[in-house]
Amino acid sequence: MCENDPIICNLLSQANQQQRSRVWNDKKITAHHAIIPTQAAASDGINKLNNKEGNVYDLIRRRYIAQFFADYEYDQSIILITIQSDQFKATGRITRVQGWKCAVGTGLSSNKKSAAKENEQELPAVAKGEQLLCDHLDLQDKLSKPPKDFTEGTLIKAMESIGSQVTDKVMKKILRETAGLGTQTTRANIISAQIYHER
Questions:
Q1: Considering the entire predicted model, what is its pTM?
Q2: If residue 58 lies in a helix (H) or strand (E), which one and from where to where?
Q3: Which helix (H) or strand (E) holds 12?
Q4: What is the distance between the alpha carbons of residues 75 and 126, in angstroms, rounded to a whole number?
Q5: Which of 24, 81, 119, 165 gives 20 to 30 Å between its CA and that of 46?
Q6: What is the span of the domain harbouring residue 174?
Q7: Is 53 inside any structural domain?
Q8: Cross-strand bridge partners of residue 5
């Protein structure tokens, strides 16, 4: 990868090549394994790729490189405040170890949204039972909206991340290891079959 594009060399030098993630488990490789960079060196590097091709290649290589970095670690704090009978919550998150995020956070494929630093806010240190001064209140009159209906695209995405909606620890672990319900090639067929069955 460094021969193909010297820009990535600095990132590769920070990676721990001895680290092995769960993707190295040959027993879990099926017919549809991940797309990964090869050891083949391109004669012109990546210069012959157009913008879209370069973005796809950069996305693949950065996801691959990310497995050789440490976990992303952060401190999260929550403050619950009671004003008369109403309770308010403030949350804060501060990054402590950037880990794998330094591999996927920037590059050819990043846009303004992904390149921008996550909104982090450090909350002040407070003690339980401490009284705080309410500086001002801003009352907004709004109506809650129901969740949007699923489209085929959002339903497929929900099938991939279904583990986050499961409370059973054993099932959650299984769904995370198998990357959700179905595979990337079968999810659309599962949805189509279900729609046909209901009709």
A1: 0.54
A2: helix 51-66
A3: helix 9-14
A4: 16
A5: 24
A6: 149-199
A7: no
A8: none
